[in-house]
From TrEMBL:
Taxonomic classification: Eukaryota, Metazoa, Spiralia, Lophotrochozoa, Mollusca
The protein, known as: Ankyrin repeat protein L93
InterPro entries given in the database record: Ankyrin_rpt, Ankyrin_rpt-contain_sf
The keyword Cell cycle appears for this protein: no
Organism: Mytilus coruscus (Sea mussel)
Keyword check for Cell inner membrane: no
Length: 205
């Protein structure tokens, strides 16, 4: 009814949140559809540069993400904390959204402000299928964060043998050391993950 009475679909509150952002943040799919059909700006961001797409990606709202992408939402923008839609989806483990973003051309080698890649987030959170999808799209499995930690180091540290194996099969450097001189085998040994230590040791020999 409000939209039928010419309510402004892009009018924001003091934090520059639009009706579309509220709908995306709360997973209200049909309201998002109505607002977009009435011309709501899908790239209008708040004062911290959070976009409707970021909110939908961070909350796992798959259908809303699809609608926003179909309306031209920017999938490579960053907020003030240097999170991208892809990073939010990777961090929260939303595989289907990750695939949608990658298929639209999202940059999988963009870094968070600590140098964390989407692949590092996926390794740290133990999301095996997302790791596979990122590697399939060409993410650099040897690119390190600002402390010299590689995706393989995070996988070793978190004790996920399957992800360690996937990274090694994709060409991850098993002899790389961090800024403190810690090798992968040291991390695997120090964390007492026996299976993972054996996987790394076999690749070093």
């Amino acid at each position: 009814m409000l939209l039928d009475r010419a309510a402004d679909s892009d009018k924001c509150d003091k934090d520059v949140w639009s009706p579309l952002m509220f709908a995306c943040g709360n997973g209200c799919t049909e309201i998002v559809r109505m607002l977009l059909d009435r011309g709501a700006d899908c790239n209008k961001s708040d004062k911290d540069v959070w976009s409707p797409l970021m909110l939908a990606c961070g909350n796992g709202c798959t259908e809303i993400v699809r609608m926003l992408l179909d309306r031209g939402a920017d999938y490579n923008n960053w907020n003030r904390d240097q999170w991208s839609p892809l990073m939010l989806a990777c961090y929260n483990g939303y595989t289907e959204i990750v695939v949608m973003l990658l298929d639209r051309g999202a940059d999988c080698n963009d870094c968070y402000n600590d140098g964390w890649l989407p692949l590092i987030f996926a390794c740290y959170k133990r999301y095996t299928e997302i790791v596979r999808k990122l590697l399939d799209k060409g993410e650099d499995c040897n690119k390190c964060d600002k402390e010299g930690l590689s995706p393989l180091m995070f996988a070793c540290q978190e004790g996920n043998t399957e992800i360690v194996r996937i990274l090694l099969d994709s060409g991850a450097d098993c002899n790389k050391c961090d800024q403190d001189g810690w090798s992968l085998l040291m991390r695997a040994s120090g964390n007492r993950y026996g299976d993972k230590k054996n996987v790394v040791r076999k690749r070093i020999r």
